[in-house]
TrEMBL record:
InterPro entries (UniProt xref): Phage_tail_fibre_N
All copies of domain Phage tail fibre protein N-terminal, residue ranges: 3-157
Protein name, as recorded: Tail fiber protein
Pfam families: Phage_tail_fib (PF12571)
Amino acid sequence: MANLLTPEFEQYIAQQTINNGTVIFDEFIFANIPTLNEHNLTDYLTLSAVNDHIVHRQAVSKAGVVNQNSVVYSVTLGTEIGDWDYNFIGLINKSKKLLACAIQSEPIKKIKNKAGVQGNSITRSVLLEFSNAKTLTNINVNAQTWQIDFTLRLSGLDEKIRLTNRDMYGRAVFFDDGFLVSRKTGNIYNINAGTAYIEGVRANLPQHTEINATNLPCSIYVDVVHHCTVTGAYETEIQFLTRNKTDYLDQAAHQHYVQIIADIDSQGQITDRRLLDGRFIPNSKKSSATDSESEDTVATSKAVNQLNELKADKATTLAGYGITDFAQRALTASDNLNDITVKGLYRNTSYLNTTNNNYPENASGVLFVLSSAEQVYFSITGKIWKRFKDTNNWANGWARVDGNAIFEEGGMIKKTLVLNETLVMKRLFAGNQAREWANYHSQQGHTFYLSEDRSKKGMSLTQEGLEVVGTLKGEDFNLGNGHSLKTLFTQIGSFSLIADLGEMNINELKFPCIAGQPRNNNARCDRGYPVEARAGSLSVMPSAYGYKQVYNTYDYGLIFTRNQTANGEWGEWRRCDSRIKDVQILTGVVQHGSTLPIPSGFSENECKFFISLNFDDPSLSGWDIQEVGAGKHYYQKCYLTGREVTAQVWHGSGRGMDVGKWIDGKANYLVIGIKEG
């Protein structure tokens, strides 16, 4: 069965509404249209399409008002009318020949009384709903109960409500402990009272019930049906099954919905199979409070908005972030660092630090106490020191954690070259142009050159990332580019200190501070750290576009830095510690014409070679080395061709180079292998 409003009806209602005219429908038509079905009803939405099939016309018997927007038209076909079949009913405006609606049904016989055979009486009603229907039709009589099939209307409303519930709750939802199955005794099981929705049907179990599960294993199902009872009341019936059954129609054509609620194994153990209220948050579980500690409610949009407004006013001090158990004060002359165990930042700007007070060096700086057994000292010299307390004493002493750091352009000097003799390092100049470093060995007075040609610019020890340990005498000791050796800190005192960053996102730290992260699991890239799971310390200091961050990992090896960009965002982290991972040194004496060795595992390109004359037996000649005059009787040459050694002395027998010979000598050599990572 199908029914449709016609386009003419819609146009007619719109026109009469605009013109304040009266809407009139005054006749029913009955027709028998061959091959009519619900799919082709759209072909018969005008009177001209139906006229040839009309079997009966009859005026509207009764019209009544249901509500302001609904009116009903009825016709009664008495037993004196017949005999004919019909499968189409239409409501029309007779004078305008306008079809309002078309109703398709299965073929129905209309029989009249005749020859002692009782005919049938048929009543048909059409309910029309449109805006302001009561006023437009000028119908003021209330509809009679016989005119409306209230059962059909109520059933339609119930179905609409069921579908709405289905959209909200899904296939099924059980609230709290409702319909929870528990064992009572033997094969008797309790089912808790409660409320559930199954396929949109609301099922309310007012009190607990029992079920006998005799054949284990089995499952428990709830079967619900919503229908009209014999008294006219609508209710939901609930029954419980121990046998699987899909949704079905009963003999009265009532729709049943079946949902599993529990499994029971052969030992009587229960597995809860109810679908709980994960998709639905009742109003009682919502809260707009911003100071609640409840774990049973969820925040509303209002609560989230209030917290967001609070967060917008970001703190600029430690106290603003709730860090109150952190000391900040200046160190005094009486302070012994062994006695300072309270977490905090202690500033020293008065040169009070001496080794007697257990400072790591005689230089002012900042003491960072991470715990009662862990201290870090940031020296004004750029050195960083750390120590731990073991069994209530500081016996292990201070250890440098900056990789023996002296900063220069291009990276950190980290590896160490240990010599047993004093070195003098001097910068060579030609005019105002700086050349390579020359290293003078002070005890023997021989010069170690980087290459045969002094004017050729070479790589210095410091440029190669080496620190020379020994007694250093500095002549014009700088980096050769107008910059002196840099320190890690140029000023101390305006920094905030954070002892424990905890789970804080360091992208938020856009003010000068020094901070510690003692736990590996808190150092995460999604919180702004450069590497995962590496505890360490963070320094934030002013830079070109705001601030610069330097992160030094606890394992002493990794240093990362990044800067704010012009738009205030953080740029990428860049690693800036030394790339040198191995250094090998060879020394010795070789004969003229020999080839210098290289350390095992190193290539020639990874090595630097230095030689000086070792032996030339000056006693063979009576001439003094520092001769004066137009000619020389004594010369030396000591240089490398690749790795081949030239070490010779000229002994002259006459003036100049006319008479004499070259005597082969020996050369000292120093080979330094440097392997980068």
